[in-house]
């Protein structure tokens, strides 16, 4: 499968930057051993050169585009996604989420749930996901195995929480560190096996303090040391809601002024491999500090509408140099597909034209007004592909179609039976692409590839 060579002929679409929808019509894209070997305009001689390989001729209603990167997804919460959407964050965690996540102490339950989730995400075109699992080592290993088996690129963390959690869903500091390090070793072993098979690593370990309130400073500091020792990725939540920000300030008023960004910095977790979900209640100097550290934000617009009473100022942050991508935030949000997430990102920024946020309840430093900030469908697609890849430091490998990059791609067909919108033959490719993004769904996804391997 991996050394198979094949050639697409037709339209290739990607977003090499936030304002460019690059449409390469009548091109060939040669994929060899999982990588893009060549992209060039079609000429008849191409056919002779590639006689021995599989030739995939795309029709006028079809194009290929990069697969989605979901930067922030809680795997166990797939079970609850779509419910309890009217409850504030801290109450939602206590009443619904901790009891739900605790069920993953049963490996059989976790295997069934994670199998369903990963299949669903691949079907929706998500070729890379950064996951929070639960505090359970065994179930987290199972998630890693399922992603490897099904062929999804995955960044996977065992959740760490040694305080402010119920008795049935908490660990000691030592357990948290020991199990995190064991997960790192386990995933690194998995990577070695794949190297032998001639493929690059698909699965990566992530150090995952849930959020500052559930972590002692001792735990955060030891996790910071582990991040350095093993040079691995980090993920957490940052400045998500006014309640959360106030809670952190009450807990640790003397560490970095009681602010999330400073506490992550002081404990060694604000690294160039760190991705923090949300980042709504950030002051400009904190954004600048994140930029200087090379860390990134996963904006989760659906969850932000439901929990945060605010939005990630994506355009403002990207202009200041911050790497931003998008996340589903299953199951604080209800969608498992990145299509509604991209639409929500567009809507969120439209509301900035006419809503002035009341941040007075938290007495927080805030952004200046964001009038005229525009996120359109191109920008949103960029965020969901190359933006997410940049946040994970893998934009030299995936996120757009360039020679030498790995082939993580979707084949979209805008003329399939019972799709959600009608097809007109005379629509140009840019119109077809925009219609799929705004009105289409997984029924239009006719093929999904990760590292050149067809996975769905
Ligand atoms: N903060 C801490 N845990 C969570 C979680 O599971 N979801 C969201 N959205 N925020 C959190
Ligand atoms: Fe989250």
TrEMBL record:
Enzyme class at the top of the EC tree: hydrolase
| The protein's Enzyme Commission number | 3.5.4.3
Q: Name one GO molecular function term.
A: zinc ion binding
The record's section on InterPro entries has:
Amidohydro-rel (IPR006680), Guanine_deaminase (IPR014311), Metal-dep_hydrolase_composite (IPR011059), Metal_Hydrolase (IPR032466), Metallo-dep_hydrolases (IPR051607)
| One Pfam family matching this protein | Amidohydro_1
- GO aspect biological process, one term: guanine catabolic process
**Cofactors, names only:** Zn(2+)
rRNA processing recorded as keyword: no
Record's SUPFAM superfamilies?
Composite domain of metallo-dependent hydrolases, Metallo-dependent hydrolases
List residues of the Amidohydrolase-related domain: 63-453
Pathway the protein contributes to: Purine metabolism; guanine degradation; xanthine from guanine: step 1/1
Q: Which controlled-vocabulary keywords does the entry list?
A: Hydrolase, Metal-binding, Zinc
GO (cellular component) term, any one: cytosol
Which reactions fall under this protein's catalytic activity? guanine + H2O + H(+) = xanthine + NH4(+)
User: How are cofactors bound according to the entry's free-text note?
Assistant: Binds 1 zinc ion per subunit.
Family membership noted in the UniProt record: Belongs to the metallo-dependent hydrolases superfamily. ATZ/TRZ family.
Role of this protein: Catalyzes the hydrolytic deamination of guanine, producing xanthine and ammonia.
Full protein name = Guanine deaminase
């Amino acid at each position: 499968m991996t050394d198979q060579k094949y050639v697409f002929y037709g339209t290739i679409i990607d977003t090499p930057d936030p304002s460019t929808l690059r449409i390469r019509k009548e091109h060939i894209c040669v994929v060899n051993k999982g990588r893009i070997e060549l992209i060039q305009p079609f000429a008849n001689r191409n056919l002779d050169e590639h006689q021995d390989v599989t030739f995939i001729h795309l029709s006028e209603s079809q194009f290929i585009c990069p697969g989605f990167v979901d930067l922030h997804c809680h795997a166990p919460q797939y079970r609850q996604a779509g419910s309890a959407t009217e409850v504030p964050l801290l109450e939602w965690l206590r009443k619904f989420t901790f009891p739900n996540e605790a069920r993953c102490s049963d490996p059989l339950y976790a295997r069934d749930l994670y199998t369903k989730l990963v299949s669903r995400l691949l079907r929706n075109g998500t070729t890379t996901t950064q996951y929070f699992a639960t505090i359970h080592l065994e179930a987290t290993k199972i998630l890693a195995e399922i992603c490897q088996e099904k062929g999804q690129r995955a960044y996977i963390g065992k959740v760490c929480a040694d305080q402010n959690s119920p008795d049935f869903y908490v660990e000691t500091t030592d357990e948290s560190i020991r199990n995190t390090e064991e997960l790192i070793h386990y995933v690194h072993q998995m990577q070695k096996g794949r190297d032998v098979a001639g493929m690059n690593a698909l699965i990566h370990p992530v150090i995952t303090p849930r959020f500052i309130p559930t972590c002692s400073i001792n735990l955060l500091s030891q996790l910071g040391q582990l991040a350095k020792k093993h040079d691995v990725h980090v993920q957490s939540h940052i400045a998500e809601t006014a309640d959360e920000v106030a809670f952190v300030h009450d807990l640790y008023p003397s560490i970095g002024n009681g602010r999330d960004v400073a506490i992550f910095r002081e404990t060694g977790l604000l690294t160039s491999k760190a991705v923090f979900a949300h980042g709504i209640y950030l002051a400009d100097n904190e954004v600048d500090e994140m930029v200087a550290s090379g860390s990134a934000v996963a904006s989760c617009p659906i969850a932000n509408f439901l929990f945060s009473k605010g939005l990630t100022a994506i355009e403002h942050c990207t202009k200041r140099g911050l790497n931003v991508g998008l996340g589903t935030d299953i199951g604080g949000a209800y969608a498992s597909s990145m299509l509604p997430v991209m639409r929500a990102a567009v809507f969120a920024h439209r509301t900035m034209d006419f809503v002035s946020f009341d941040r007075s309840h938290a007495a927080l430093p805030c952004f200046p007004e964001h009038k005229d900030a525009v996120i359109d469908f191109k920008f949103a697609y960029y965020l969901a592909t190359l933006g997410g890849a940049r946040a994970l430091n893998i934009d030299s490998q995936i996120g757009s179609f360039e020679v030498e990059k790995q082939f993580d791609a979707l084949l979209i067909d805008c003329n399939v039976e019972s799709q959600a919108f009608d097809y007109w033959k005379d629509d140009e490719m840019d119109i077809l692409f925009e219609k799929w993004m705004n009105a289409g769904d997984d029924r239009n996804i006719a093929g999904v590839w990760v590292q050149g391997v067809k996975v769905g």
